Amino acid sequence: MDLDFLFFWGYNNYRVNNIISTNISWRKKAFFKGGIEIKKLFGNTLGLKPSQIKRIEKLYRKRIPNEKVISYDVARILCETSFEIGRQIGVLINRKGAVEYVIIGNRKQIILPDLSNYRSGEGRLKGLRLVHTHLNFEPINRDDLTDLALLRLDIVASLFPNEKGLPRLIQIAHLLPDNPAKKKWEIIGPTSIEGGIKNFTSFVQSLEEEFSRAFPKAQSMLGKERAILISVTSKPRFESEDSMEELKELAKTSGVEVVDTIIQHIKKPDPKYLMGKGKMQELVIKAMASGADMIIFDQDLFPSQATAISEITELKVIDRTQLILDIFAQHAHSRDGKVQVELAQLKYLLPRLSKKDIALSRLTGGIGARGPGETKLEINRRRVRDRINRLEKILKELAKGREIRRIKRKKNNIPIISIIGYTNAGKSTLLNSLTKSHVLVENKLFATLDTSSKRLRLPREREVIITDTVGFIRDLPPDLLGAFSATLDELKDANLLLHVIDISNPRFEKQIEEVDKLLDKLGLKYIPTILVLNKMDKIDLDKREGIARRFQGIMVSAINPKSLGPLLEEIDRVLWQKSEENLSLFRPEVHP
What we know:
The protein has 592 residues and is an alpha/beta fold.
């Protein structure tokens, strides 16, 4: 019989959909025999007899009753054939009881096919269950549990054939919702084929209901993203915990709800997933139990790592740099700030434009434009590079305007003071208190991105220009530092730096070190600096004196203008410590 006629007859009589694909012919995907669709086998079929292949292919025609994990008929075919060929055989069954995949492995394991088309829905499970044979009566092993967790399978079941190759017992494993014992999964059996789970449909529905309780509908309606924070590091525990606390603050600033944290200490990170498979299992289960839809890593990820982790967890994956860029994008309001943030984002995006797509294999052009052309990926990269060049030109133009303003200030012989410090140390609050202005103040990281300059009158009727700058942070992304270089260059014209420190923060000493490193990197260590020990109202009186003596700083509370007297006197002393006749020489031309 003609194949085309056979295909047409089978399609119309059985209404089999999705046989013809734009990229894969139906002959490669399936074929018909007597109007019945015969799907292909997956895995190791080499050396199998035609009769054995035919027997295994019959599994695609079987239908398992809704209340059963596996029917005895299907279990018998699996066990007898597996016993005969000496290889494991497995089936992936959907919720309707139809066999979606038949997989043939070796004596020790099977390799599952790509299941990316089966995305977990609101119920959070894959909607597929794996049943496969174990020839040596070995229990459910680590590989089985890894597949269960990472693929979010409904269950994983192992069949044990007896000495005649007939199904003897079954062992079942399924994931567990969040529980006091912190168990990830439960293993049932070995038990008889009919035992274990009495009604599979009811069981899996109740399991999904328990998982879905962790995903509040009210929360999803608000559109607030829920994230698990992860740190994979070889640093000492106290450093990794401090870094995780800072990542929590960054997530909070970005408007993300943190539902859990994971810290893994390793000697060498996994090149593909960064973290180990055990932690990856824990991550997937925690995401299901907590309703998380995002993972945020404290480390920067390679593009391939972010893609691999996203594919295996089916969650949105971002790293620390992306989180900081998102915060900057939210808080930039001036033209300078918006251009700088967009430039940093595009520089970060450019090397990550590597996502494969069917359209990438098609060349642009057409009539009159034949030839090599460009792929879609190349077009996107070119557009990003063009936009980067355009933004860099805009930044140069804006820098000229700032240079003109700096020249005017120098002509007026007005000293310039720049407020620097770790993010959220209280720099904007100090500027408001000193100058009685109303710069935006929030208890968030990077609330200030746009530079603000105000006039300040000192007690001896002397005027200075005082400028608020963007906050520093540990491991500031290089692209971000490069984009803000034009703004940070203004610090080089400062006659005095006020380094604001939040002494109520338990990590303030580490923050001082990070700011000093960045000042050294920018070549600003030569500028006179006053340490402003802020938030003294939040620590005990006896601790204040010890901190002030140790760091040789001025103790203040930026929200209380009455506490700023000693700081104003110190500013006056540093700027005007020379005689009155040399007032025009505020700072010698010193270069690092």
